Amino acid sequence: MTDPESREGVRLDRWLWAARFYKTRSLAVEAIGGGKVQLNGHRAKRAKQVHIGDELRMRKGPFEQLVIVRGVSERRGPAKQAQQLYDETAESLQNRERIAAQIRSIPTPTFKTKGRPTKKERRDIERGRGG
Prior knowledge:
The chain has 5 helices and 7 strands, in the order βααβββββαβαα. With 131 residues, it is an alpha+beta fold. α1 (12-18) packs across α2 (25-33).
């Protein structure tokens, strides 16, 4: 995964896209601009260079991932290759699994009403409003 030009590093938005954390580079740019991505503990800009050994913290919804960069690539490849670009820390995996279990344990909302009002019920509602 390491190319000769990778010694200088790769732009953060390109790396996030190549590692398949985001479907498009524009989504990666939005996340970086929104402060959802930190590089080595600091808020980063999209053109910041990512090097092997850097630590990335990303938030997506209720989940937060902490990954260590193991390879750099500017090209998006298959998922198997993308997974070789980083290692997720054990603590991060445990936290994500714990949050996922909490989300699964929340009961799904159920509607107590029977749905849309019938034509007769709508007329009654309109009469009640003074119409």
